[in-house]
Design goal:
By secondary structure, this protein is mainly α. The protein is 67% helix and 0% strand. The longest helix is centred in the C-terminal third of the chain and has 18 residues. The relative contact order is 0.18.
Length: 83
């Protein structure tokens, strides 16, 4: 699990929100599925969605952006190592 996934899941649980409830706060019809992919580290959302997640989870501005960038760099590094 990446840094982004860890932060999103930990904060959601800390706030006592289900994936469905957080999805509703974000205005998503498929919130559970969408958040499940983020929390499993299979999806890095767009910058616009990361901003919305930061607001919904009451996180510092840019916190999820930094985590997403770190995860993207880790993925790129692991791809470079494969032949």
């Amino acid at each position: 699990m990446g840094e982004l996934a860890t932060i999103v899941k930990a904060r959601r649980v800390e706030l006592g929100l289900s994936q469905i409830e957080l999805g509703e706060k974000l205005g998503l019809s498929d919130g559970r599925s969408y958040l499940s992919r983020i929390e499993a580290g299979r999806l890095i959302p767009s910058r616009k969605r990361l901003d919305a997640l930061e607001r919904a989870l009451d996180l510092s501005i840019g916190e999820l952006q930094v985590a997403a960038l770190s995860d993207e760099r880790s993925r790129e590094g692991s791809r470079e190592g494969t032949v």
